[in-house]
Every structure is written in C-alpha cells, then in structure tokens.
Amino acid sequence: MELTPDTHIVLTLGDIQLNATIINTWIVMAVLVGVSWLVTRRLRPDVPPGRWRSALEVMVELIQGQIHAVTRTAVRQVMIFSGTLFLFIAAANLMAVIPGFRSPMGSLSTTVALTLAVLLAVPAFGIMHGGVRHYLARLAQPSIIVLPFNLIGELSKGVSLSIRLYGNVMSGAVIAAILLGIAPFFFPVVMDLFSLLVGVIQAYIFAILAAVYISSVMADASPEASPQDTP
Amino acid sequence: MTELTLVALISILTAGLTVAIGSFGAALGEGRAAAAAMAAIAQQPDAAPTLSRTLFVSLAMVESSGIYCFVVALILIFANPFWDAVRSAAGG
Q: Is the predicted ipTM greater than 0.95, yes or no?
C-alpha cells in the first residue's frame, strides 16, 4: 500500500519524474488562482457584487475576523500570509473528494515546505517589526544561557507543525484504504466524511498557529514605536 | 526463528503497543479538555465562539502526540526500513 502520493509517478519528462504530489499541488494552485482571477476579473465599484464575488468576500472577511480575534497585533501582511496558507491547505484537503485525487498534504515534503515558509516568515516579520538587533535580543530574552533552548524551541515548532498536518491527512487516507479492504460498502464513506472535517480543521489550525507564532515576535512594542517612555 | 520472522514479530508487536499507549494518553487529555470546555460553555453560553475556537486549537495540539504514535506505527507496518534490509541481506 502507498502511504504517500510521492511514490506514484504520473508523468515522466526526460529525466524528470513528476509524482502525484507535484501534479496535485499544481492542480490546487491552478484552481485557486483560476477561480480568484475569474471572479475578480471585472472588479469595479459600480458593478454590484455577484454570487461568486460575495462568496469570496465572505471567506476573506472570515479569515480577517478569525486572525484578528486570535492575534491582537495582526497586521495586514500576517493576514495575507496565513490566509493564503489556510486557503491552500483547505482547498487541497477538500479536493480529496474527487476520485483519484490524493491530497498533497499527505506527503511529508509538502508540509515541510509549508512549514519552512512559516519558519522563514517568523524572523522576517520580527525583523520587519523591530529591526535585527531587537529580534536577536528577543531570542536571548531572559538571559544568554537560554539562547540554545529558544533555538531548539523554534525548530520543534516546525517539526510539530509539519508532522501534525502530514499525520492527520495521511492517516485519513490510510484508514479509508484499510476500511475499503475490511468493510467496503458503508464505513469508508463515513471515514471520508470525517477526514474532510479533519482536513478543514487542520488547515485552520495550521494557519492560526502560523499567525500566533508570527504575532508572538511582534507582540512587544518595537523600539521605534515607543521611544523611551519607560524610565 | 529466522531473522525475517523476528523483525516482523517485533514490528507488529511494537506497532500495536505504540498505538495503544499513545492513543491512551491523547484520548485522556482530549477528554479532559473537552469536559472543561463543556463546563465553561454551560456557565457562560455567550463566550461559546471563543471557547470552541480555543478548544479546537488545543484539541489539535493535544491530538498531535497521538498522531505521532500513529505515524510511527504505520511506518513500522507498511514502510519498515529494517524489513527491506533484512530481506535483501537474506537474499530474498
């Protein structure tokens, strides 16, 4: 049995072998970009919003509200970054209802790539917020002795983020495949329904945790924002 | 008992034990978290959206340890690296 879609080679172009993970990621990207482009193609203030545009606006408002509720200091860039993560993961997990489509989140390489983006975004937003010195000083916050532990903490955040998403999505697919061999009529449908719910919840958690990690390095007042008001 | 049988035996036993012990802790923790959230919602129904959002996030974080155990068990059964090594060493 295939645990991940990595081993399933779809297309071979010369020396390059494209597996199902890459192809499915491209399909998800194409669907997201295509739908967004089609809906916002004629975006003018005098045209009344149609059905699709209203749906997109509801989604954006929802993401905005959730991220503002979780992180008080959220700026627009954080909302865009973690909203994109949510839309990508949720779309990939929801498209698993299409027969033959396996969610690319069931492969460890996809989730590690997304986690690397988060781990790079955390120092980037921290430096953007208060400068390099401010961010580096945060890492050695109580004293210089805890610096290695803070670094290990950053790394373990990444490991837990990636393995959580991979494990949840992959286990849903594997359980459905095992049940297909045991009780092939009714139970796989129920488990597929459950794994759709799990997929959306995991997308939500990934995006929220990314926003929380980013806003934790932007939580305190930056040296530019509050100049010497403490004695 | 050949080496191949030994590897299979230990892998299957360990996979079962991993899921059993790992899911035990995660289920206990999730149950406690859900019970606390239920009690809080019963006391303050107005705060239900905030409570359920926090509950979902914390449930997922608690559940991830159980998921790690499940991933290890699946790797032991379906993608065991020692199985292939022993089989190729045995010339099979």
A: no
